[in-house]
Amino acid sequence: MSDAQKTVIIVEDEKDAAEMFAEMMRVSGYKVTKIFSSTPAIGIIAAENPDVVILDVMMPDISGLEVLRYMRREPALQDTPVILVSAKSMPSDIKIGMDAGASSYLTKPVSFLDLKKTVDELVVHAPAL
Questions:
Q1: Model pTM?
Q2: Are 13 and 41 in contact (CB under 8 A)?
Q3: How far apart are CA 126 and CA 17, in angstroms?
Q4: Which of 9, 54, 95, 102 is 20 to 30 A from 126 via CA?
Q5: Which residues pair with 82 in a beta bridge?
Q6: How far is CA 82 from the centre of its chain?
Q7: pLDDT per residue over 20-62, tens digit each?
Q8: Cα separation of 38 and 61, whole Å?
Q9: Which DSSP symbol is given to 102?
């Protein structure tokens, strides 16, 4: 890993879950930004250009899937790795998430090892800009 600290943006409306994910990422050496609403998320993601986004699917305002679809349409964001997290664990739900452009899909509750492994793999294998 280079000297520059890798950044993770967490978009999660449940504050306890957001803090848990953030702590998992901080312990793993990542710089973390938490966003509790999907409405401002797109602007913040565009401004910060993170190494990876952890995105909750079920948000109270705009669905995480809509945020993901928007990112995939934006040239500056279309290659940003996105990990969808959701309590929805049916194969059809996972397929919808992957079809929308997710890099990975994790079902809640998410274990520390699963999240760390997934983020590390996406950050290490992310294309250099």
A1: 0.93
A2: no
A3: 25
A4: 95
A5: 53
A6: 4
A7: 999 999 999 999 999 999 999 999 999 999 999 999 999 999 9
A8: 6
A9: -
